[in-house]
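Hi R.,

As promised on Friday, here is the backbone we talked about, encoded as structure tokens. Could you run it through your design pipeline when you get a chance and send me back a sequence?
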């Protein structure tokens, strides 16, 4: 559980000077939105509003001139999700849902210049999904362009400086969402992709070569293993550190690992979890639990060793244990994190809630306790 780091973390936010931003061929201002293709967007939106506390801020559908699908835009802090469903089974979106269930299709990245982002990445080998195009309405215009990443997931570059509407041309604003029950979510901390056997380095190379990301942290199967199963992970970060994508691949173990289970059910590579940041995890997780979000159970033994492993922390250990929150420390501070159970019937997508108090860790000290908890759930599903 306390294996030494394989490689030291590389860039820090403080080191990302304007000089390095100038040299960055793909400067990113952050994650713009995450779009899910779902079987019933109206009901999915309801779940994210009442359980995760997001507000419905915009809508597009037949009533607004979007004839083939309905899209609900949900927001909390800077976290923005779009739930999209096709209105006819002949729509290609319906095929995506047939294959993957409700799933993340688009990880949209906010850029100053979408044309340039598309040119720089396709020149370096990215496969284009959509060449740069403009959408406009009375509130201005956005420029969009898309490239492929792992599996059927895509990145869309969004340039929106000249747009002043609710979300995007074609969307109608929703004035006030009386259903939303906010829980204090602030922004996306990181989004993790699961890729196939021995494919991690190929995708690490893609993010380095095509998108100008660099290796931020690296964990091998000795860091991330239990008695039964293992995985390997490398965290890729963009130039200013605003966007972080850990990439996981399965590793050999005595039994089937969680990444294998995902690849089997998704099926294929896709987004495994989205980590959402809060500055008060006790409050956020209390609210989420009250609103029906189910988290992984952490055994009592984890908390008896916590203080000696992590040292002094502001939060009472009994409070953390009551909610099932994990803690980890590095030389810069500590962090608190917790993982939901999968939010769908397929054992695929789940969420992490994270509060960083100085630490840039991804919770290496928690991997063993966490994966043993995941294995108990896999066992219940008959998949271990
Ligand atoms: Fe994570």
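Update: got your reply. Pasting your designed sequence below so it's all in one thread:
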């Amino acid at each position: 559980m306390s294996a030494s780091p394989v490689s030291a973390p590389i860039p820090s936010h403080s080191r990302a000077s304007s000089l390095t931003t100038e040299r960055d061929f793909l400067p990113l201002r952050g994650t713009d939105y995450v779009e899910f293709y779902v079987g019933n967007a109206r009901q999915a939106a309801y779940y994210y509003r009442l359980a995760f506390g997001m507000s419905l801020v915009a809508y597009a559908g037949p009533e607004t001139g979007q004839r083939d699908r309905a899209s609900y835009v949900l927001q909390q802090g800077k976290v923005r999700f779009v739930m999209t469903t096709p209105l006819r089974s002949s729509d290609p979106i319906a095929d995506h849902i047939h294959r993957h269930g409700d799933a993340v299709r688009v990880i949209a990245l906010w850029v100053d210049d979408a044309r340039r982002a598309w040119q720089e990445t396709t020149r370096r080998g990215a496969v284009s999904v959509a060449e740069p195009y403009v959408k406009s309405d009375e509130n201005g215009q956005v420029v969009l362009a898309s490239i492929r990443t792992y599996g059927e997931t895509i990145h869309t570059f969004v340039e929106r400086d000249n747009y002043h509407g609710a979300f995007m041309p074609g969307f109608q604003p929703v004035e006030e969402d009386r259903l939303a029950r906010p829980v204090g979510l602030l922004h996306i901390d990181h989004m993790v992709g699961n890729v196939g056997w021995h494919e991690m380095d190929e995708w690490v190379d893609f993010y380095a070569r095509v998108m100008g990301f660099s290796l931020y942290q690296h964990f091998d199967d000795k860091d991330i293993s239990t008695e039964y199963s293992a995985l390997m992970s490398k965290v890729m970060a963009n130039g200013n550190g605003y966007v972080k994508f850990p990439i996981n691949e399965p590793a050999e173990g005595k039994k089937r690992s969680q990444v294998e289970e995902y690849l089997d059910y998704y099926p294929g590579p896709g987004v495994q979890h989205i980590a959402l940041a809060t500055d008060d995890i006790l409050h956020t997780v209390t609210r989420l639990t009250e609103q029906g979000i189910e988290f992984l159970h952490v055994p009592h033994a984890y908390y008896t060793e916590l203080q000696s492993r992590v040292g002094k922390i502001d939060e009472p250990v009994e409070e953390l244990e009551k909610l099932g929150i994990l803690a980890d420390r590095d030389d810069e501070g500590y962090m608190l994190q917790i993982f939901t159970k999968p939010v769908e019937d397929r054992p695929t997508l789940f969420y992490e809630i994270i509060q960083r108090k100085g630490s840039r860790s991804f919770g290496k000290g928690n991997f063993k306790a966490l994966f043993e908890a995941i294995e108990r759930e896999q066992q219940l599903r008959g998949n271990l």
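One thing I noticed while checking it: The longest helix spans residues 367-380.

Thanks again,
M.
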